[in-house]
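Sanity check

After download, print the first record. It should look like this:
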Amino acid sequence: MSLIVGIPACSREVAGHPNHATPSRYGEAVLGGAGAIPILLPPVGDGLVHILDRIDGLLLSGSPSNVAPACYGVADDATPEMHDPPRDATTLPLIRAALARGLPVLAICRGIQELTWPSAAPCTRRCTRCRAASTIAPGWAFGVQWHPEWRCVENADSMALFRAFGEACRAYATVGRSAA
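Expected structure tokens:
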């Protein structure tokens, strides 16, 4: 059975038409580094959470956009033109559910913003809000602030990261899925 890794797409407008896109290098790294089949997950909101029943891992890609500060409960916004509300509405519920079931998650660049979103992962402040909101990951979750997907097969560190992700996905597919 082939492993399947979901990659949430960004929402972009191209020539006046809405599109869902993610740079191809993410799929290539999942295929070549993790040994899994990448599938693009459209940014259609929290109804996509059920896809977690059918995938073995979740890769949160980088993007020019940032998670909207309103998602963190912050009103100030220094970059209002740099947000992707459809992606936020999709990835944030996906991450909570993925972490809760132990589904392996690899977060790259913008993906770290999503992974560390207060309702997705615990913070170290120990305030009431964070204790109440924290979906402590029983499985493999890892975030990097660099771009290991660039020339993944040519870089030993990148390959090691994607191989580890692939191994976590394999373990989840054989053992973790039945426990979830």
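If your output differs, re-run the checksum step. Summary of this record's structure: The domain at 4-179 is CATH 3.40.50.880 (Rossmann fold).
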